[in-house]
Structures are given as structure tokens and as C-alpha cells.
Amino acid sequence: MNILVCIKRVPDIAGSVTLDDTGAGIDESGLGHTMSSHEECAVELAIQTAAATGGTVTGLTLGPAEAVEQLRAAVAVGANDGILVEAADPSVFAPEDIAQVIGDVIRDRAEAGQTFDLVLTGDDAADTGDFQVGLRLAYDLEYPVLTNIQTISASGGGAIEARGIGPAGTEVFSLDLPAVVAVHEGGVDPRYPSITGRMKAKKAAIVEYDAPEPGTGSPRIRLELPEVKASSVTILGEGPEAAPALVDVLEEIGVIRP
Predict the structure, then answer these.
(1) Is 13 among the domain residues?
(2) Where would you tag: which of 11, 94, 209, 229 has the fewest CB atoms within 10 A of its CB?
(3) What secondary structure letter does DSSP report for 212?
């Protein structure tokens, strides 16, 4: 099974987050970059499924030239090659635009003899949380689609079995290929790259495209940071003298009964 896994270069937002001057993006000036956790799991699922079916994994990203780092990170853990659609400012591409670009690349690669049985995306990206690209891509390709999926496995006969968590518990689907699946983190643990993998990644083939002019689909207006909630610390006391106050707190939150 040949799999295309779509990833995005996002700022590492483990620390403090501020917005840029436009208010529509994150100020990345002091941040490192990585790929979203959902997409890390998508890469892992792609590698496992391709290994079980004798297939290949190709990573794809739309982003600046530096986004090749994320493609090589995917190769370092087991992907075969990568596709970079270079855009100096990817923030101007709305989810509909991104889906159209990915669809055009898939069609172009098919004409060149490289076809994909399965396309994986993350449920959403860590920086914008759009939750749209997988659905819009499936619509563009006229493929069936599943979202919020945590594990996949080949079930034979040109289909896969996919599992995700729904309101009532685990949901199990059978999906005919070709198809698009949006992956949610939690079903697998992404692997770490080996030294051999890192060396392989430096020499991996990366096909490059120039991004077209973005269309008019659902542009982002602005982002808003959540309100910072004030916090306080109450010192109950020191040593044995703090015990009565601690008991009162435990009773108040219901850990113990009076």
C-alpha cells in the first residue's frame, strides 16, 4: 500500500505564545519548529501500514524552504521520500487552498506514475486548529474520508479497518481505497529516529513544487489568545501545625469525609 502523509511545519509552542503584527498568525521569531502531534501519529501509522503491506510512505508539506526539515524528520523514522510545495508565506493559504494544492500534487504524481492508495492527514494543526484540510481534500479528490481515527490496518480486498474514539466508545470502520483519513493522536506512539535513519534522511529524494497563488477559500481573519487566569498559592503552614488546615482542604474537595 502506497501512502501519502501530509504534514505541516508548525512552531513549537511549548513555551509562551504571542501573535504577530497581523493578529492572524503566531510570532515565530523566538520559537523552534516541529510537526503537529496528530501528524506525528499519522506518520507512524503510515510507516506501520506500509511495512505490513509492502508499500511506501511519502511525506508532503506546503511551507517555506525550511519545511524540508519536517520532511526529512519523517524520512528519518521510516518514510521513503518527500514532496515540498514551497510557499514563502503559507499562512495566506486557507484550508480550502491547501486541500486544492495537495489534490493537484496527487494528480500530477499520478500522471508521473506515482499513485497513492491512502492519504493521511492530521485531524488539525497545532498552530491554527482548522480541522478542515482532510475533509476538503477528500471532497476535491472525490474519495471517502474518516476523521478522528487513531489506528488503521489493512483488511484486504482494497480496504482498511480504521478505529477511533466516538461519543459511545471505540468506533470501527471499513473503508474502501483510495481514501483520506484524518488521524487523531493517542492510538500509537511515534518512534524516535535512529542514527541510520538520520543519515538516510540527509540523502532522501525531495520533489519540489512551487506553490500557486492562493485562492479565495475561507481565509483566516484573526487568532485570539485565551485570557490569562490569575493563580494564587495558599501556604497552609509548616510542619505538624499545617495538618489541621490540610484536613480542612481535603474535606472541602471531597477527598475525605468529616
Answers:
(1) yes
(2) 229
(3) -
